[in-house]
């Protein structure tokens, strides 16, 4: 079994414009999707949701506001999923509710720290 | 009261108190000696009371005898230590003035300290439970063997090894410092949780004993909630969970010992006092911002005490199981989540999720599929239930499953 990182991206402030009911529904979709993975033993790590506050440090100690570069998208969260192959991980990612909300999921293999 | 009933009763209530105090006084290396002294005290009581009659205050009689025996031991031990180890000798100096303090405060403190010492991750969980039952609950080796569906020799060996390990690792009998309590209490709660489950989901035929295990687990958890330094949110959450489960004791077991499923239970047999206590402890658990798995399980158990079938209930339960699984995977939680999912989205959605769980060797997995296929595809339901009945180890469970199969075949 290998581990893959799911990196979620969506528009900056994706919550804007949703009604409380819609937000409630989005939360439910995420919970059901994550719970489904967890029930199948596929969730290696519940991961983190990332907020909109952020800074970026660049060479010469230049600090810019915001987690994003010049793109409109930002990373909204990250989780770690267990799967045999990247294709299997990709299949799992196809169920992610972010896809119904204009976002996307990047699937990356995790390289153990001690590997060359 | 006749001495025939009195001694077992005192054994159950006093053995653990005196033993905890003596363990603390003697140190972790002498647990067995503490047990033997208290055992001897009860033996002497049985003989003496048999021909002299029962003393006016039987518990005080036991305390006095145990105190004297403990002092004798310390004296003998001091003489022995003089020859072998000046260090131990120093520790047990002035044994003549040693006070064997059997006040209720010292009994409570000693029991709490023993709880932390026994729930030690260096010994396996079943040994922690076994030692807890022996030292903290005063169960006999026979009763422990019965609860674990094994024999006396196995339990004796298991407890012996555990005590040796505690001695080897020089585990201290003391309260952890305040800064460490949160971390150390985790382990105590895991053991108490397992102790409760051992009783609640017991495969032992002895229903009275199973209930006793649950009540003891609740008593010990309550001791933690009563003490200011250990009265933590997750302690209250666990206690709440235990109250909610225990509220169904009388409804879930038929007079003939048969298990009654949740859906078929007579609600009027649910214990309202325990449900109210459960709600109280759940409120107490909500202080602070930690959400442990006990909080979530208590919330699930709370919804199970609410009216039986409302859409809101199953939505909440599903959402809680999702959160629980994200914190910690367990096959039981995965199966229960799928059941809740079927209640919300229908049996066919439930079946599709269930078949991805990969738990083919579990009787509960086939039990769930049997349940979900009922009314959708009865032939498949019967197949799964038949597999479940072959895989299950508990006779009571098998009976319930066979009944369902019969019903399906008839219908």
Descriptive overview:
The complex is a heterodimer of chains A (116) and B (411). Chain A is an alpha+beta fold and 116 residues long. Chain A has a domain of 78 residues: Alpha-Beta Plaits, CATH 3.30.70.1060. The two termini of chain A are 19 Å apart. Chain B is an all-alpha fold and 411 residues long. Among the domains of chain B are: 102 residues, no CATH class; 129 residues, no CATH class. Helix content of chain B is 73%, strand content 0%. Chain B is built from 20 helices and no strands. In chain B, 37% of the residues are buried. The model of chain B has no long low-confidence stretch (mean pLDDT 89). The chains are: A alpha+beta (116), B mainly alpha (411). Chains A and B meet through helix 1 of A and helix 15 and helix 16 of B.
Helix and strand arrangement:
The complex is a heterodimer of chains A (116) and B (411).
Chain A: E1 2-11, H1 20-39, E2 43-49, E3 55-58, E4 62-65, E5 73-83, H2 86-93, E6 104-109
Antiparallel strand pairs in A: 1-5, 1-6, 2-5, 3-4
Chain B: H1 3-26, H2 31-52, H3 58-84, H4 86-91, H5 104-118, H6 125-136, H7 141-147, H8 152-168, H9 178-200, H10 207-226, H11 233-246, H12 249-252, H13 272-285, H14 293-305, H15 311-327, H16 331-345, H17 347-354, H18 363-373, H19 378-391, H20 395-410
Helix pairs in contact in B: 1-2, 1-3, 1-5, 2-3, 5-6, 6-8, 7-8, 9-10, 9-11, 10-11, 11-13, 11-14, 13-14, 14-15, 15-16, 16-17, 16-18, 17-18, 18-19, 19-20
User: Largest beta sheet of chain B, briefly?
Assistant: none
In what range is the share of β-strand residues of chain A? 35-45%
Structure class of chain A: alpha+beta
Q: Identify the biggest protein-protein contact and residues per side.
A: A-B, 12 and 19 residues
Order of helices and strands of chain B: HHHHHHHHHHHHHHHHHHHH
Residue share in helix of chain B:
over 70%
Average pLDDT over all residues of chain A: 86
Strand adjacency order, main sheet of chain A: 2-5-1-6
Span from first to last CA of chain B?
56 Å
User: What is the CATH C-level name of the domain at 1-7 and 41-111 in chain A?
Assistant: Alpha Beta
């Amino acid at each position: 079994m290998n581990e893959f990182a799911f990196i979620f991206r969506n528009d900056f402030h994706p919550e804007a414009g949703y009604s409380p009911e819609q937000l409630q529904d989005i939360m439910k979709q995420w919970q059901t999707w994550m719970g489904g993975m967890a029930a199948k033993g596929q969730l290696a790590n519940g991961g983190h949701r990332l907020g909109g506050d952020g800074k970026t440090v660049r060479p010469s100690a230049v600090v810019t506001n915001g987690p994003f570069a010049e793109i409109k998208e930002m990373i909204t969260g990250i989780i770690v999923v267990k799967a045999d192959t990247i294709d299997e991980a990709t299949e799992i990612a196809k169920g992610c509710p972010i896809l119904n909300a204009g976002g996307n999921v990047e699937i990356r293999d995790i390289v153990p720290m001690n590997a060359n | 009261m006749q001495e025939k009933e009195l001694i077992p009763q005192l054994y159950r209530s006093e053995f653990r108190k005196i033993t905890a105090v003596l363990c603390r006084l003697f140190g972790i290396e002498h647990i067995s000696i503490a047990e033997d002294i208290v055992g001897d005290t009860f033996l002497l009581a049985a003989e003496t009371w048999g021909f002299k009659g029962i003393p006016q205050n039987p518990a005080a009689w036991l305390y006095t005898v145990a105190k004297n025996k403990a002092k004798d031991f310390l004296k003998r031990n001091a003489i022995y230590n003089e020859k072998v180890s000046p260090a131990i000798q120093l520790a047990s100096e002035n044994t003549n003035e040693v006070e064997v303090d059997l006040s209720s405060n010292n009994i409570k403190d000693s029991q709490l300290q023993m709880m932390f010492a026994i729930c030690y991750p260096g010994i396996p969980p079943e040994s922690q439970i076994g030692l807890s039952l022996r030292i903290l609950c005063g169960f006999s080796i026979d009763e422990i063997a019965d609860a674990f569906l094994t024999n006396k020799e196995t339990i004796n060996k298991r407890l012996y090894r555990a005590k040796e390990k505690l001695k080897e690792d020089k585990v201290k009998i003391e309260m952890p410092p305040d800064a460490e309590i949160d971390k150390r209490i985790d382990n105590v709660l895991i053991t108490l949780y397992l102790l409760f489950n051992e009783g609640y989901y017991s495969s032992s035929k002895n229903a009275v004993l199973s209930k006793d295990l649950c009540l003891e687990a609740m008593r010990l958890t309550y001791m933690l909630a009563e003490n200011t330094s250990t009265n933590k949110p997750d302690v209250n959450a666990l206690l709440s969970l235990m109250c909610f489960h225990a509220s169904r004791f009388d409804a879930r077991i038929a007079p003939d010992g048969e298990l009654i499923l949740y859906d078929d239970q007579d609600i009027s047999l649910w214990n309202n006092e325990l449900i109210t206590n459960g709600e109280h402890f759940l409120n107490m658990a909500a202080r602070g911002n930690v959400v442990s798995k006990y909080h979530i399980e208590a919330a699930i158990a709370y919804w199970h005490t609410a009216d039986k079938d409302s859409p809101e209930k199953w939505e909440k339960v599903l959402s809680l199981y999702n959160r629980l699984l994200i914190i910690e995977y367990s096959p039981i939680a995965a199966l229960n989540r799928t059941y809740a999912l079927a209640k919300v989205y229908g049996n066919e959605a439930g079946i599709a999720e269930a078949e991805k769980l990969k738990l083919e060797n579990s009787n509960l997995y086939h039990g769930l599929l049997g349940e979900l296929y009922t009314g959708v595809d009865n032939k498949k339901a019967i197949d799964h239930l038949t597999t479940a009945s072959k895989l299950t180890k508990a006779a009571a469970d098998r009976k319930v499953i066979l009944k369902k199969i019969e019903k399906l075949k008839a219908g």
